[in-house]
Design a protein that fits this description.
This protein has about 350 residues and is α+β, with helices and mostly antiparallel strands. It has eleven helices and 15 strands. It has helices at about 10-20, 40-55, 75-80, 95-105, 110-115, 140-150, 155-170, 185-195, 245-255, 325-335, 345-355, and strands at about 35-40, 55-60, 65, 70, 85-90, 120-125, 135, 205-210, 215-220, 225-230, 260-265, 270-275, 280-290, 295-305, 310-320. Strand 13 (about 280-290) and strand 14 form a beta hairpin. About 35% of the residues are buried.
Length: about 350
C-alpha cells in the first residue's frame, strides 16, 4: 500500500482540532441529504445496512425517499463538511482515514465504551458549521459496526429524522417577509374546536367548523393541506381500528370537503406509534382524484383520546406536480405534530411565542 495512504489527511486533522472554533459558517444544503463517509475496506459492509436504516421510501406518484445518502471519500470531505447532516462510519480497527478520525475525535471515556461493547453511536452538534449534526457510528470491528446498524435502524433513523423535523419546524414557524405564525387563528381554533394546532405563516383556514368536528388548513404554491376530524369513541362499533375503517372514513370526508379525493387502493400502509402519549397508528398512502386527474402523497395519524372520549384523524396531503413532494409532505407532518389536546398548555405556550 502506498505509504501516503496511511497518513491521516492534514485537512481532517485540522477539522478535528479546530472544529470547535466559534467562527463557523452556517450549515448549507437540503435537510434530506446525508453525506456519509467510510473507509474503502469497510464501506461494502456498512453501505447497504445504512441505506436500509435511512433511505425510507414513501409512496408518491413517483416514489421518493425521506433521506438520500451521498457517499463520499477524503478527496471531497472538505467540500461537504459544512452540510447539515454528516455521517462517519468506521471501526476502531480501520487503519484508514476515517478510522483515525474516530480514534482522534472520541474521548478516552467514549473509546472505552466502544472497546467494552457498550456504545456505538455518537452525536455532536455544530462541529464544522452552525446548525449541523455529525453522527459517528463505530465499533470494535467492521462486523460489529454492521451488526449495530442492522439492529438499531429505528434509533439511527430517529436521530436524523428528529434533527430534520426540528429544523423544518423552526423554518415554517419563523417570520419571513413580514409574515409570521398565525396566533389569532390558533386561538380561534382552540375556542371553536377544543384542541390546539400551530398554523404557519403560509397556511390559511379553508373549511370546517367546530360543530362539524372538522378543520381544514391549506397552503398554496405548491398545494398542501391538513385536516383534523374527530368522532366520539362510543360512536365507533366495538371501538376498534382497521385500515378499512380509516379509508372509508377518510374518503367520506374528502367526498364532502375535497371534491371526492380518495385513497388509492393498495397504497395504504401503517405502523404503530404514539401520539400525545396515546397509542396511535401512523399511516401513509396516495390520494387520487379521477375527475381532476390529480393525486399525491398522504401522511396521517389515528389515535383515541380516551380522556376526552374522542377518536382523531390528523391527515396531511400534497399536490405538487413535477416537483419533489417529500419536503412539503414533511411540512404537513410537522404541523400535525404540533396538535395538542391540552388547550391550557397550548395557550400558555402560544403566549410565550407571541412575545
Amino acid at each position: 500500500m502506498d505509504s501516503m495512504k496511511r497518513i491521516f489527511p492534514i485537512s481532517l486533522i485540522l477539522l478535528v482540532i479546530f472544529g470547535c472554533d466559534d467562527i463557523k459558517p452556517e450549515a448549507i444544503g437540503s435537510f434530506n441529504r446525508i453525506y456519509a463517509y467510510a473507509d474503502p475496506q469497510e464501506i461494502a459492509l456498512v453501505k447497504e445496512p445504512l441505506e436500509i436504516a435511512l433511505e425510507y421510501e414513501i409512496s408518491t406518484p413517483r416514489p421518493e425517499k425521506l433521506f438520500r445518502i451521498f457517499w463520499g471519500d477524503t478527496s471531497i470531505f472538505e467540500n461537504t463538511d459544512q452540510y447539515h447532516i454528516v455521517l462517519i462510519i468506521a471501526s476502531l480497527q480501520s487503519p484508514e482515514h476515517f478510522g483515525a478520525f474516530v480514534r482522534i475525535s472520541l474521548s478516552d471515556e467514549a473509546l472505552d465504551s466502544v472497546e467494552n461493547g457498550k456504545f456505538n453511536i455518537f452525536v455532536k452538534r455544530d462541529t464544522w458549521a452552525r446548525n449541523q449534526i455529525l453522527v459517528i457510528l463505530t465499533g470494535r470491528t467492521p462486523e460489529e459496526v454492521r451488526s449495530y446498524i442492522l439492529t438499531h435502524t429505528d434509533e439511527i433513523f430517529e436521530i436524523v429524522n428528529s434533527y430534520c423535523n426540528e429544523n423544518v419546524t423552526h423554518w415554517i414557524y419563523s417570520s419571513f417577509q413580514g409574515k409570521h405564525e398565525k396566533f389569532d387563528l390558533e386561538k380561534k381554533i382552540v375556542d371553536d374546536y377544543g384542541f390546539g394546532i400551530r398554523v404557519p405563516r403560509m397556511f390559511e383556514w379553508e373549511k370546517g367548523a367546530g360543530r362539524e368536528r372538522f378543520l381544514w388548513l391549506r397552503a398554496l404554491e405548491p398545494e398542501r393541506w391538513i385536516f383534523v376530524w374527530w368522532t366520539p369513541l362510543d360512536s365507533i362499533e366495538s371501538g376498534l381500528f382497521s385500515l378499512r375503517w380509516l379509508q372509508t372514513t377518510r374518503d367520506s370526508l374528502c367526498n364532502i370537503y375535497y371534491e371526492s379525493d380518495s385513497i388509492l387502493n393498495g397504497t395504504l400502509t401503517y405502523e404503530h406509534t404514539r401520539f400525545n402519549d396515546f397509542p396511535a397508528i401512523k399511516y401513509r398512502g396516495r390520494w387520487g382524484n379521477l375527475n381532476a386527474v390529480a393525486g399525491g402523497p398522504v401522511v396521517g395519524y389515528v389515535f383515541d383520546d380516551t380522556l376526552s372520549n374522542r377518536r382523531y384523524i390528523l391527515d396531511g396531503a400534497v399536490f405538487a406536480p413535477a416537483i419533489k413532494k417529500e419536503p412539503y409532505l414533511r411540512h404537513c407532518e410537522t404541523i400535525i405534530n404540533t396538535f395538542d389536546t391540552d388547550t391550557t398548555g397550548f395557550i400558555s405556550a402560544l403566549r410565550t411565542r407571541e412575545k
